[in-house]
Amino acid sequence: MARKILTEHIHVPGIETFDVYRKQGGYTAVEKAIKSMSPEEVVEEAKKSGVRGRGGAGFPMGMKWGFLAKPEGVPRYLVCNADESEPGTFKDHYLMKTIPHLLIEGMIVSSFALGANKSFIYVRGELMYVIRILEKAIEEAKAKGFLGKNILGSGYDLELVVQPGGGAYICGEETALLESLEGKRGNPRNKPPFPAVKGLYQCPTVVNNVESISNMPWIVNNGGEAYAQIGIGRSTGTKLISASGHIQRPGVYEIELGLSVEEFMNSDEYCGGIRKGHHLKALVAGGSSVPILPANLIMKTANGEDRLMSYESLSDGGFASGTMLGSGGFIVFDETACIVKNTWNFSQFYHHESCGQCSPCREGTGWMEKVLHRIEHGHGSMHDVDLLVDITKKIEGNTICPLGDAASWPVASAIRHFRDEFVWHITHPSEATAPGAAYRGDMALV
Ligand SMILES: Cc1cc2nc3c(=O)[nH]c(=O)nc-3n(C[C@H](O)[C@H](O)[C@H](O)COP(=O)(O)O)c2cc1C
């Protein structure tokens, strides 16, 4: 069995309560950090661990903490990004609802490290029941002296606020989140200044993902170096993967980074293989925003090496033959899936969720949806395939926030790897629009 950092105690009955969590060693990291470490020492352990942000971009957490400005007399904030709205990603939701004290403990040690006395957990607004679970956990921790004024008699104060999100995917983008937290419309901000200099209420702020922060209790207890021993290369530690689609065992799995994609996909400990009698056609490895890979590039890289569940291996080959680990939303498609329909489906999401600030994204996501709709419904022309590619190029890199890239990459990669399927939809409209139709062509299936 692989090592578990986040989910080791997740199946212990009553783990959502303070008492059971405490019995499993919970809150020892708070005691250790507050009683025997300086904030700088906690930051140092985060740096040594090499843990990278689990919200999607994979930026090293300790390095981000090191950028936090510390002007005299100005408050600093830690904001936990629990907005989790990326299609295919549902791991933060799972962690918060099953073991809420892990995040609360992570928030306390991280806030202590950053010198924050008021911190926020911004939770996807639809998850009201999770918000109540977190609020209950906060009340319990407060009653036991781990939160509030003078934590464990140390003189350190921390107030933790749970804020329901604005109900939009864009509110997961860190600066849109800060706007929303300030009570405004969730529009991303121009950067610089970055949140580390001017974030919430124009004060220095760190925004980190739920899973990133939940690693901190283990890192404080065991040391950053021990964390860095787990995983592979610069992909240290473990990662929660949300597995869905045409597999035997969908769910949330904690893996050691560096596990082979093949083992993750086929082992009974994880996905358990493709559903019976079917073949692997395509994979979206890191949530709807990352490039889709065809079967022949999933288990092996273009160089024939085993593809691993790591930041580096998944992106091997760049956009030509690689993808990204992203937020770990692992969506598997067998040969019954229609890539055109799926791409159209994703494009509807991005069009709906574009905040509308930047014209390339506001207009381009709408055009992509429209063109994909007509190809999917048998009214496309051959010109449409190149038109789509052209639109993706006009959006990518031309927007304030990366939602534009996130909308472009699924379309660009689907055409790059499955152009024949798009062409078939255009040249065989009546076959392509028949119920349950999916292109088989001569594509390599595994
Ligand atoms: C459109 C969009 C949506 C995002 N949604 C989330 C989200 O729901 N949760 C999250 O942690 N990061 C999300 N991010 C990434 C955040 O902007 C930010 O990089 C992240 O919260 C930083 O935390 P980390 O370094 O711990 O990953 C999103 C980014 C974009 C562009």
CATH class of the largest domain: Alpha Beta
Q: Residue ranges: pLDDT <50 for 5 or more in a row?
A: none
Strand content: 5-15%
Number of domains as seen in the coordinates: 3
Query: At CATH's second level, what is the architecture of the largest domain?
Result: 3-Layer(aba) Sandwich
Count the E strands: 11
CATH third-level topology of the largest domain: Rossmann fold
Strand order of the largest sheet: 8-7-11-9-10
CATH superfamily of the largest domain: NADH-ubiquinone oxidoreductase 51kDa subunit
Give the fraction of residues assigned to helices: 40-55%
- Report the total helices: 19
Which small molecules are bound?
flavin mononucleotide
Distance between the termini: 26 Å
For the largest beta-sheet, the strand count, sense and barrel status come to: 5 strands, mixed
> Looking at the structure, what is the overall shape?
globular
Keywords: 4Fe-4S, Flavoprotein, FMN, Iron, Iron-sulfur, Metal-binding, NAD, Quinone, Translocase
Enzyme class: translocase
Function: NDH-1 shuttles electrons from NADH, via FMN and iron-sulfur (Fe-S) centers, to quinones in the respiratory chain.
EC number: 7.1.1.-
